[in-house]
Amino acid sequence: MRDGRHSPVAASLDTRRLRAQLELKNRALASSAEGITIADAALPDNPLIYANAGFERLTGYAAAEVIGRNCRFLQGPGTDPEAVAVLRAAIQNRRAVTVTLLNYRKDGTPFWNRLSITPVRDAAGAVTHFIGVQSDVTEEKLAKDALQHANERLEAASQVMKRDMAAAAAVQRSLLPAEMPFVAGMRIAYRFEPCGDVGGDSLNVLPIDARHLGVYILDVSGHGVSAALLSVSLSHMLSVEPGRSFLYQACAGNPSQYCIAEPVQVVTRLNRHFAKATGVSQFFTMIYGLLDKETAEFRYVSAGHFGPVHFHCGAAQPIQEAGGIPVGLFPGVTYEQHSISLSKGDRLYFSTDGIPEAENPAGEQFSLDRVLEILTRKRDLRLEETLSSLMQCVGEWTAPGSPSDDASLLAIERSA
Ligand SMILES: Cc1cc2nc3c(=O)[nH]c(=O)nc-3n(C[C@H](O)[C@H](O)[C@H](O)COP(=O)(O)O)c2cc1C
After folding, report:
1. What string of DSSP letters covers 294-318?
2. In this structure, which CATH number among 2.60.40.10, 3.60.40.10, 3.30.505.50, 3.30.465.10 belongs to the domain 165-414?
3. Which mutation among 40, 91, 114, 116 tests ligand 1's pocket best, with the greatest number of atoms within 8 A of CB?
4. 70 C-alpha to ligand 1 centroid (Å)
5. In the chain, domain spans
6. E strand or H helix at 130, and its extent?
7. Is 46 in the pocket of ligand 1 (CB under 6 A)?
8. With a 6 A CB cut-off, is 90 part of the ligand 1 pocket?
9. CATH number, domain 32-140
């Protein structure tokens, strides 16, 4: 039987089918939204032999104007020479390449061209043509550049902020007691761990006069810069400079002299000062007390603050009577002063709520029970070591590197 494909009828059918396929390809190239160009690799300087309608729309040049020319005519003063060098090297080495570079339309307007060039090889593997695909990516490029600039500005601002925060943290640390005052028969220690660079916790032990130590621990609502600013200004208001400190007041009999203010007077005055500052949404909890070095009596006021915890007769117990309203919430609050006598071997622990309320990754709080259990179990350690030990347990409880609140501890021990 004769092979039907070799008949004249079959040959004419094949030719028609081939022509139809070619026309389809031509229509596809012509209707592409992208620019499509073909350059002849066999001719010197790779001149264009084809440019589709997409290229005409994109560049404003008619195909007839560009055929026979190398496509570098789209480049201009703003075109990056490095991008052109990448193109040149790829074409010389017969490699495919994609580059985004600035090109210019016939009317001179610039546009960002994402250009892909692919070599076309014959059956023997020799490169006969290059196909170029041009896409206008101006909007995308400008948006990307704007984003990059915004990110750079943000990064620069964040660096400045980090430097400022580190400086603020240094100021805050410089306000902590460098060393604890020496008191015969007593031991005093503290630990301070802000959750960020700066925190809202503050504490101090101050030699108010020859007989008394002023002891405070406070926790400003929130944390970060605004909390730290308030805690820094509070440390000035609670200093040993009688003229400007809330810890002293004019003596009853001699108003030109300063006398020690009782804790209830200090806290009441602070509350009067902060609760009247309308529009300020910050408040703080605190314990302020006077330790009488001769009698080992501690007179104190708690303004909504956690504790203190009293270690007495081998066990740590919270002092339930403490409590009160945080400073700065309501004007006219009446505070109650309490007193506790330290027996030999007793310890008084003060902490901010960052200790009992520290959360583990499951959201569970460290809890007062754990605090009491550790303080009781570690009773035979030196005071400083007991505090470090508690701090370490809290650190292990919270997710590594991410405590959610500042944590501070202060403790007084009457030697056994
Ligand atoms: C098919 C093809 C299309 C090209 N299309 C562009 C184009 O749209 N824009 C452009 O800047 N360069 C284009 N080029 C690159 C330039 O023609 C030229 O190769 C490049 O500028 C590097 O060579 P030169 O250093 O000799 O100028 C194309 C090249 C080929 C082969």
Report:
1. TTTEEEEEEES----EEEETTEEEE
2. 3.60.40.10
3. 91
4. 7
5. 32-140, 165-414
6. strand 127-136
7. yes
8. no
9. 3.30.450.20
Q: How far is the CA of 361 from the centre of ligand 1 (A)?
A: 57
Distance CA 164, CA 161 (A): 5
- Distance separating alpha carbons of residues 404 and 398, to the nearest angstrom: 8
Quick one: 2 exposed, middle or buried, by C-beta within 10 A (0-12, 13-18, 19+)?
exposed
Residue 75, ligand 1, Cβ within 6 A: yes
Ligand 1 centroid to 399 CA: how many Å? 56
Query: Is-contact 229 222, C-beta < 8 A?
Result: no
Q: Are 300 and 287 in contact (CB under 8 A)?
A: yes
Query: Does the beta carbon of 113 lie inside 6 Å of ligand 1?
Result: yes
Tokens of 242: 């009688």
Q: Which of 36, 40, 52, 70 to probe ligand 1 with, by most ligand atoms within 8 A of CB?
A: 70
Q: Is 354 left (phi over 0), alpha (psi -120 to 50) or beta?
A: alpha
| Centroid of ligand 1 to alpha carbon of 71 (angstroms) | 5
Scanning the structure block, which residue is given the tokens 């944390």? 223
Could you list the pLDDT tens digit for every one of the 416 residues in the chain? 444 456 777 777 788 888 888 888 888 888 888 999 999 999 999 999 999 999 999 999 999 999 999 999 999 999 999 999 999 999 999 999 999 999 999 999 999 999 999 999 999 999 999 999 999 999 999 999 999 999 999 999 999 888 887 777 777 777 778 788 888 899 999 988 776 666 778 889 999 999 999 999 988 886 667 777 788 888 889 988 888 899 999 888 888 888 999 999 999 999 998 887 655 567 899 999 999 999 999 999 999 888 789 998 888 888 866 678 999 888 889 999 999 999 999 999 998 888 888 888 888 898 889 999 999 999 889 999 999 999 989 888 887 666 566 788 999 999 88
In angstroms, the CA 238 to CA 329 distance is 19
Q: Which amino acid is at 292?
A: D
Instruction: Using the mean position of ligand 1's atoms as its centre, give its distance from the Cα of residue 72 in Å.
Output: 5
Find where tokens 């292990």 sit.
Answer: 396
Choosing from 40, 71, 88, 111 the residue with most ligand 1 atoms within 8 A of its CB, the one to mutate for a pocket test is 71
Radius of gyration of the chain (CA): 40
Q: Which atom of ligand 1 approaches the CA of 79 most closely? A: 11
